[in-house]
Amino acid sequence: MRRLAAELRRLSATTDLSREDVAEQTGINNVTLYRIETARAKPQMRTLMSLLNLYGTQGEQRTQLVELSKDATKQGWLRPFHTDLPEEYTAYISFEAEAHSLRNYQSLFVPGLLQTEAYARPVVQGVLPQAGAQDVEDRVQARMERQRLLVGDLPLRLWAIIDEAALHRLVGGPSVMRDQLNRLIEVSAQPNVTLQVIDYAAGAHAGMPGSFALMDFDDPMDTDLIYIDSMAGDLFLESDADVRRYTTIFDHLRAVARSPAGSTSLLAELAHRVE
User: Fold this and answer.
1) Which are the contacts of 176, defined by CB distance < 8 A and separation ≥ 6?
2) C-alpha angle with apex 105: 99 to 107, nearest 5 degrees?
3) CA-based nearest residue to 86, from 19, 15, 135
4) Distance in angstroms (rounded) separating the CA atoms of residues 199 and 210
5) How far from 176 is each of 129, 169, 268, CA to CA, in Å?
6) Nearest residue to 236 via CA among 76, 92, 73
7) Do strands 157-163 and 212-216 pair parallel, antiparallel, or not at all (unpaired)?
8) Which of 162, 142, 151, 146 minimizes the C-alpha distance to 187?
9) Beta-sheet strand order (sheet of 212-216)
10) 221: number of Cβ within 10 Å
11) Measured between alpha carbons, how far is residue 119 from residues 12, 59, 115, 158, 206 in Å?
């Protein structure tokens, strides 16, 4: 739907027609048109055909857009037990599964893709004290399945930056935290994973306002996507201005963080000190 929406916006821009003009000439409700162009709704086939006719889209391009519309109804790797997960989280899982690379900054947690199961469970329980046992288990298992993206023939390229504060919090107790730190050391050796830690000595830095994930996609029709998980709700950003801003922030974080080798040394030191 994101791909289709982006291409429809591009086609509209080439005609110099405003959204109001398009609505008037096609009879499509202005609100419906807005929802289609922002990937909040999938267009019915007759609606899509009306838009493509107005934009003069023919041949292979028309066929590709029709196929995109059909693909928008297909499910990703989500399994039946994921149906009770929040819609925003399942959307993120789907985007993550299609991403070519992921830049992730975390200030309070170990990144989900790098969590051990023993660490993930108390994290979910702590963050969602009202969640039932099955809800907790569904979220934990979804997190474990997501980690399959880091292995295989075409693994996800992950660049993770963690604030040192997240590594001192004894989630699950000393034994669980020690195993988690060792897990970070282990996974950082994978060629598709880059791991850095911003240590306390770095002082104030650009990531202090909160965590975020920045996803890049192979398909040129897929714009980069920013995901922010907060107490106020999940947020997806994809405007060029937002992508530039968060890319710049991530670049600043890379600059102030320890090198990958220095980060591994710090992780080993912290694991040794856990009691």
Assistant:
1) 116, 118, 119, 122, 170
2) 145
3) 135
4) 16
5) 20, 11, 15
6) 92
7) unpaired
8) 151
9) 193-198, 157-163, 101-106, 212-216, 225-230, 233-237
10) 15
11) 48, 52, 6, 20, 27
Instruction: Answer yes or no: are the C-beta atoms of 137 and 194 closer than 8 Å.
Output: no
CA distance 256 to 198: 7
Q: Which residues contact 42 (CB under 8 A, 6 or more apart)?
A: 1, 4, 36, 69, 72, 73
CB atoms within 10 A of CB 7: 17
Q: Which amino acid is at 272?
A: H
Q: What is the pTM of this model?
A: 0.78
Whether 120 and 146 have beta carbons less than 8 Å apart is answered as no
Q: What is the pLDDT along the chain (275 residues), one digit of tens a residue?
A: 777 877 888 888 888 888 888 888 888 888 888 888 877 778 888 888 888 888 888 888 888 888 878 776 655 544 444 556 777 788 888 889 889 999 999 999 999 999 999 999 999 999 999 999 999 999 999 999 999 999 989 999 999 999 999 999 999 999 999 999 999 999 999 999 999 999 999 999 999 999 999 999 887 667 899 999 888 878 888 888 999 999 999 999 999 999 999 999 999 999 999 97
The helix (H) or strand (E) run that includes residue 267 is: helix 260-273
Residue type at 202 in one-letter notation: A
